[in-house]
Structures are given as C-alpha cells and as structure tokens.
Amino acid sequence: MSAARPRPAACAALRRLRSARGGGGNQIQGTPSIPRQSRKRKSLAIAYEGDGAEPPRAPWEPRDWREQLERIREMRSSRDAPVDEMGVHKCYDSSAPPQVMRYQVLLALMLSSQTKDQVTSAAMLRLRRRGLTVDSVLQMDEHTLGQIIYPVGFWRNKVKYIKQTTAILKQKYGGDIPSTVEELVQLPGVGPKMAHLAMHIAWDSVAGIAVDTHVHRISNRLKWVKKETKYPEETRVALEEWLPRDLWKEINWLLVGFGQQTCLPVNPRCSQCLNQDICPAAKRV
Predict the structure, then answer these.
(1) What contacts 24+ positions apart, CB below 8 Å, involve 171-178?
(2) pTM here?
(3) Hey, which residues are catalytic here?
C-alpha cells in the first residue's frame, strides 16, 4: 500500500518554516545566525627557546684590548713616570689626620688641572710648609695664596676656586670633603676627573673612571671607544660601558704614565711601544 502524499497546504507551511529558519534547519527562530568559521585555519608561528630564535649578542669590546693592556702594564712596570713620583697621591701628608689628608688631596687635584705634575708637587710642598688645613687657607688672603701656588696653570682662577670651595667645606661639611661624586662636582673648580680621583685616593672608593687628557687621547688611539669621542667625559662614559669594573681604578694610573712617557700628544714614540703591531694609530716605519 503506497504512503499518503502530503497535502498542498502542509507543504506550503513547511516551506515557510524553513524559510524563516534561514534554510539551516537548526537555527532557532528569532535569533541571529552565526556565520560558519572558515575551514582554512590561520597558522600561528610559535617561537621556542633555542629553536630558531636569535641568540643574544655579546657585549661590545675593543679588538686586542687585553693584549694591549698587558703590554702597557709591562711598559709601566718600572713606575718611573712623573705621575708615579709626583702625582696627587704623593702630594698630601700621609701622617695628617684623615680629614686633613682628604682636604689636601682635593687641593692637589684642583691645582693639577692643566699643570705638570712637577709644578703641582712643588706648589703643594710650599702650601704644606705653611700648615695646609681648611682653617689655614681660610685665614690666608688671596694675594698670599696666589704667590704660593704660582706658577700652576690658571693660578688666578684657582685662588678664587680654592677660597670658595674651602669656605663651603667648612660651612657644609665640617671641614671634610664630600664623599660622593655628585657632591664633589658641585664645588667650585672641581670637575668629574678630579671628583673620581678624589673618590679613589681620599675615600678609597671606585665610583667611575677618572679620565684626563692622557686617558682620553690614548683610548681614542687604541680604539677603546666604539666611535671617536671629543671630550674626556664622553670617553669616561664609553669606557665604563665595557671595561670591567675591577680595572676602573688602575686604568687612570696606567694610561697617564704611558701618555707621559710613550704615547705622547705630539710625536708619539711608536717605535718604542710594545703595542706598535696591534695599535690602530701606530706609525709603522
């Protein structure tokens, strides 16, 4: 017996229901249809450690610097440069009370700017003979102080700076010197190089590298800076970026003496230098 065929009215009702449902058959009437996700899924790149990831770059350091440093140490082993015999570390009274000793270190540094070690040493000796303390300098008139320190470089300006700085030390620090670089450079006539050396010598503390004209010049000649620097303070920042901290105190003493004896500002003695074959600035004859 054949199945009964649906009536026309029933078929029409079924078609209207399917049309209302969007033709899907599973969509509830009155709710928005959700578009089907694309069958093609996007692939996400996942980077795993050690799997194609770029390795960290090694910190920059100059070529051959360790060998250059060892050779400079060898050339400086006799310790007979002016800085060794008459440098600031030789200018103060080591038997004086610590506070007086530190004051004498600072004054020696102020006098040493743009002045040969021999001249600074002689001026400090004359000052010490008169009793070099904060109080003795405050009691001294500028004319007398100028006569004593002459002929250090820019001695007139230094007379003013010494008097001003000494008054500040008396009023603000009880006659002692500041124990931080930040405070030291605020004193009249005291620059970054002096401040770092004062920390090294007076406080036995390493806060940074003391860079003078010798350290600045030689660091550029040896290419110990990524790019050429114009000022000592730029050189200090550049050196501190890569030079191991345990060498910061030694590097000033090494390079100053090396610059006084061998790597001269004009006509460096390249033929006498052990670094001639590995120095970028060497004159090879």
Answers:
(1) 175/99, 175/103, 175/133, 175/134, 175/135, 176/99, 176/102, 176/103, 177/102, 177/103, 177/105, 177/106, 177/202
(2) 0.79
(3) 193
